[in-house]
Amino acid sequence: MSVLKFKYLNIRLILLFIILNFLFFGCLQGQQFKTYKFEGLLHSKLSIDSVEIKLNKIYKDAELKSDTTSIIKSLISLSAYYRKQQDYNKSFNKTGDALFLSEEFNDPLLIAKCYEEFGVLNYLFKQDGDVVESFKKSHLLYRELYKNGLVSVEQLYRSYYNLTLYYQRISDVDSLKLYIDSCKVISNNHSFNLDSKLFLKEKESFYLRHKGKTDEAINLLKQIASELNNIEIIDDDTANKKSFLIIVYAVLGNVYRLNNDLDTARMYYEKSLKIKCFSGELTFYKAYIHEKYAELLHKMGDAILAYDNLTIAKQINDTYLNTRTDGNRGFIVVNNYYKNQLVKKNNELVTNNLILSEKKQEVLRFRILFFITLSTLIIAALIIWNRIKHIKHKKKQQNSKEVLEHKNKELTANMLKLIERDQIIKQLKTFIEEKDSSKSAKTLLKSIEHTSGNLWDEFNLRFTSLNEDFYRRLKQKVSNLSAADLKICALIKLNFTGKEMAYLLGISVGSIHVSRHRLRKKMKLDRDVNLTSFINSI
Q1: Are 313 and 290 in contact (CB under 8 A)?
Q2: Are the beta carbons of 86 and 279 closer than 8 angstroms?
Q3: I want to staple 36 with a disulfide (CB 3.0 to 4.6 A). Which of 80, 98, 165, 260 is the partner?
C-alpha cells in the first residue's frame, strides 16, 4: 500500500507537469522534414552507420577544394543526420555554421535551405518566434527561386507545408487554412505522390475539429490511418512515412477522449505507442502521447499505469527538451551565437557604412574642390582670352583706323593733285581755244576732253572702296540724307576745303556753305558741335 500511496502522491505532483507540458506542445501534430539524404550527397543504399563518416569526409574534401556550396550542403545534411539521431547539440551547431557561411556566401538557395533546417530545429524545441522567422525567410526565398525556375515545385510545396505545421501548432486556424489551400492548389496542378496528400489531410482534420466538424475530422483521420496501414515497409523512407500513424492514432485518441469515449481513446493511444518511430522526430510526441494516455488512465482509475506513463514522458522531456542539459546546450549556444553574430555583423555593417560614407564625402569634397578650381581656371582663361582678343581687336581696329586715315590722306592728296591737274588742263584748253582755231587744235581739244574723266566719279569710287560702311553708318545715324548730302559728308570726312569741294562737285563755294548749313539741320547738331568732328566719329 505504501508503494501505491507513493505513486498516487507522485501522480499529483506530476499533474502540474502535465499542464505545463500541455502548454508547451499545445496540440498534437505531425511533421515530415527533410532527411540527410535530401541534398543528394549520399548513395540511397548507404548504411545508416556509415552516414556520419561519409558526410564528414565530403565536408573535409569540400574544405580542401574551397567548395563553399558543398561545405554548406554537407553541414545541412549533417544537421539532419544528428537531428535523426536526436543529438540536437551537434545538429544546432552544424546548422549555425551552415547559416553563417551561406549568408557570407550570399547564395539565395543555400540561405533558404539553411533557414529551413534552422526553422525545423527551433520547431522541435518550440521556439515559435525563431520558427516563423526562419520558415518565412526560407519561404520568401523559395518563392523567388521558383519564379526564376531555380527550384522544383516539390520544394515550393514543402515550404508551404512547413508553414502549415507552424500555424497548426499555434492554432491559427485561418492562416492554417490559407496554407492548406496553397498546398492543395500546388498538389492538384502538379503530379505529387499520395504520401504528401496524406500528411496534408491530417492538417485538414485539425482545421475541421477547430471548426466543430468532429465527425468529418474522425472520418478523415480513419481514412488516413487506413491508407498508411497499406504502405509496405521496404526501406527507411517507407518506414518513416508509416510511423506517421503515431500521430494519426494519437489524434484519434484525443478526439475520443474529449468525447468521453474512453475505451476507444485508450485503444488508439495504445496503438500509437506501439508504433516505432524511425525518424526520431516523433520522440517528443511520444512524450506528449504518454502524458495524454496517463491522463486517460487516471480518469479510468488505473493510477499505477498512469504514473508509469508520466514517468516515461518526463524522462523523454528531460532528455530532449530541457535546454539546460549538456546534450541540448547547442540550442542555447547557436541561438545566442547567431544573434550575437547578427549584432556584430550589423555593427560592422554600420561601421563600414560610416567609413564608406566618410570616404564618399571626402571624394565628394575633392570633386567639388576640383570642379571649383577647374571652373575658376576655365573662367580666368576665358577672361584672359577675351581680354587678349579684345586688345588684339582694338589694336587691329586702331591699326585699321590708322591705315584708313593714311589711305584717306593719300586719297585726299591724290585728289588735290588731280584737281590741280584738271585746273591746268582747263586753262590750257581755254588758251588753245583762244589762240588757235585750226583743225588740228580742235582735234587736240577733243582728245583732251575724251581723256579727262569725271573727277567726282573717280573720287567716289576710291572713297567707297576704302570706307565701305561709311555711307551705311551715316544713313543709320541720319536717315533723311540726299545723294548730294552724302557727297558733301564724304568730302568733309577727308577735310576738303570749301573751295576744293566746290571745284570737285562743280558748284559754287556759296552752295557748299548752304549745303553744310542744311546738313547741320538734318543732323540736328547744336551750335557748339563741330560738323567735321561729328562726321569723323561715324
Answers
A1: yes
A2: no
A3: 80
Q: At residue 132, what is the residue type?
A: V
Q: In Å, how far are 186, 348, 377 from 372, measured between CA atoms?
A: 63, 35, 8
Give start and end residues of each alpha helix (H) in 26-67: 48-64
Question: Which pLDDT score, from 0 to 100, does residue 451 have?
Answer: 54
Query: Mind listing the pLDDT tens digit for each residue in 10-54?
Result: 444 444 444 434 333 344 444 567 888 888 888 877 788 888 999
Instruction: Quote the CA–CA distance of 74 and 52 in Å, as a whole number.
Output: 10
Give CA separation, 253 vs 175, 210, 273, 286, in Å.
Answer: 26, 16, 11, 13
Taking the C-alpha atoms of residue 429 and residue 442, their distance in angstroms, rounded to an integer, is 10
Report CA torsion sign: 211, 214, 215, 217: positive
Does the domain at 193-322 match CATH 3.30.70.2640? Answer given as no
Q: Dump strand ranges (E) for 479-531.
A: none
Q: Identify the architecture of domain 469-538 in CATH.
A: Orthogonal Bundle (1.10)
Structure-block grid coordinates of residue 396: 587691329
Question: Domain-by-domain residue ranges, the chain?
Answer: 193-322, 469-538
Separation between Cα atoms, residue 92 and residue 80, nearest integer Å: 10
| Rounded distance between C-alpha atoms, residue 342 and residue 118, angstroms | 15
Cell of 188: 492538384
Residue with cell 585750226: 438
Q: Which three cell numbers stand for residue 303?
A: 493510477
- For the segment 379-401, what is each residue's pLDDT rounded down to a tens digit? 988 998 988 888 877 777 666 66
Cβ-contact 282, 316 below 8 angstroms: no
Question: Which three cell numbers mark 346?
Answer: 550589423
